Amino acid sequence: MSSIERFIVVVLFDGVDLLDVTGPPEVFALLQRELDDAAGYRVVLAAETMDPVTTFAGVRVLPDTTFHEVSKRSIDTLMVPGSVEVDGERRIRALADPTVVNWVKTLAGRTRRIASVCVGAHILAAAGLLDGRRATTHWSTAQQLAAEHPAIEVDADPIFIRDREVWTGAGISACLDLSLALVADDFGEAAALRVARQLVMYLKRPSGQSQFSVPMEPVSTTRRMDELRHHITRNIAESLTVATLATHARVSERQLTRIFKTELGMTPAAYIEAARVEVARNQLESTDDTLERVASACGFNTTDTLVRAFRRKLNTTPTEYRNRFRSSV
Question: Which of 27, 198, 301, 314 lies 20 to 30 Å from 68 when distance is taken between CA atoms?
């Protein structure tokens, strides 16, 4: 194992999401405990000044150094967290302060590897560091990222994406998965898995793992849609065709399809499949049921149908998923 100490700079600024800042250093610090030698990472928090920074959570954090000071040396990994604003209708919008963007652009020129955490991708995008690349961000701001930066191939599904020397992460807790992937890239899978166990993550999630689950889908705006979603969940093992759902909702099949597309942005069939995969995920994590029993309980007619749905939604198979996320040890 290499004894090189890698210098990591975490960008700090007012309004930053707290877990974006503290999650990755925790992973890197745990690695130190798991290594057989003293090598690993040296992590510093850098801001424009040495004044305390107030995070979105209201917790104040002290920088270790300034952007100007770290710009004088070579950086192994530049980690860029993000921040958002929420309006009166609870709509979320990612922010990219011009001063922070300019410093990130400057520091990127001295950096071997760049990683954004959650909505930090918007800062990388504003700095021109994601143009021509595939990238992800938190699902709630993915449309904003794609609209504001058409030169980026935005994929809102994976929990993190690596495109050459630039890594982008998705939801806030996915910062742990991204950091573990960086550890694996530097020190190997075995070291990353040892850290994952310390975090009680059992196994680190692969980059293709979806950041979505059915409960995380956008909240519906009508009582009728809420009732339909509950009906689907309660009857997940039954035949849930468009015709039967339309009859239950007392609307035409065409109107039902239009309601789903307007409210949830997907067809009834796509939502039902997502709901069934979600239930199957829970059973695979918490039971020893055979794939045949899981498929039947979740409304999939055959195990082949279950496997195909997992490949479409999660880019893995039910067996691979169970091996990674089985909750018992």
Answer: 27
148-164 pLDDT tens trace: 999 999 988 788 899 99
Candidates 83, 105, 86, 109; CA nearest to 96 is 83
Query: Which residue's structure tokens are 């550890």?
Result: 183
Residue 177 neighbours by CB under 8 Å, 6+ apart: 159, 160, 169, 204, 205, 207, 209
d(CA 235, CA 138): 31
Q: Which two tokens stand for residue 41?
A: 């990472």
Write the secondary structure of the chain as one string of H (helix), E (strand) and C (coil). Answer: CCCCEEEEEEECCCCCCHHHHHHHHHHHHHHHHHCCCCCEEEEEEEECCCCCEECCCCCEECCCEEHHHHCCCCEEEEEECCCEEECCCCCEEECCCHHHHHHHHHHHCCEEEEEECHHHHHHHHHCCCCCCCEECCCHHHHHHHHHHCCCCEECCCECEEEECCEEEECCCCHHHHHHHHHHHHHHCHHHHHHHHHHCCCCCCCCCCCECCCHHHCCCCCCHHHHHHHHHHHHCCCCCCCHHHHHHHHCCCHHHHHHHHHHHHCCCHHHHHHHHHHHHHHHHHHHCCCCHHHHHHHCCCCCHHHHHHHHHHHHCCCHHHHHHHHCCCC
pLDDT for 78-131, tens place per residue?
999 999 998 887 889 999 999 999 999 999 999 999 999 999 999 999 999 999
- Please say whether the beta carbons of 118 and 98 come within 8 A: no
> pLDDT by residue (tens digit) across 201-224?
544 454 445 554 554 444 455 677
